[in-house]
Specification:
The protein is of the alpha+beta class. It is built from three helices and six strands, in the order E-H-E-E-H-H-E-E-E. Strands 2-5-4-3-1-6 form a six-stranded mixed beta sheet. The longest helix is centred in the middle third of the chain and has 8 residues. The chain starts with a strand and ends in a 6-residue tail after the last strand.
């Protein structure tokens, strides 16, 4: 299955159903279900705007502020349904391609100790 590595807290926000687009400098033609790999490092520049804070539940916001994340693991899955440049999502960054995401799932038990890669990559559970 295809996987994408994303730094936390963005990976967590996607799998929790809050973040509905992934901002990328490159377009993707891929459509379908992908696994979300939370990278080893946390995005130190992480910052939410007021609109984004309003949609996040209080307990999730507390976890984000406490850096309570599972890293270097596949933490969930989501479906890529489109790739556009003009999303009106509160998560969309102007000048980026917006990979439109649906049907998020945050795993109760992540698949731990998985090394990430750039771009979309294939996960082979037998190699972990």
């Amino acid at each position: 299955m295809k996987v994408i590595t994303i730094k936390n807290p963005w990976a967590r926000l996607i799998c929790s159903g809050f973040k509905d687009v992934e901002n990328r400098s490159r377009r993707t033609k891929f459509r379908g279900k992908i696994l979300i790999h939370a990278g080893k490092q946390i995005d130190e520049k992480f910052k939410l705007n007021s609109q984004q804070i309003e949609v996040i539940q209080i307990n999730e916001l507390e976890q984000l502020q406490n850096n309570d994340f599972t890293n270097s693991a596949i933490i969930g899955e989501v479906t890529i349904v489109d790739c556009i440049e003009d999303s009106d999502s509160i998560w969309a960054i102007q000048g980026q391609y917006h990979w439109v995401l649906r049907d998020p799932v945050l795993y109760d038990e992540p698949i731990r100790n998985v090394k990430g890669k750039l771009g979309l990559w294939e996960f082979n559970p037998q190699l972990t």
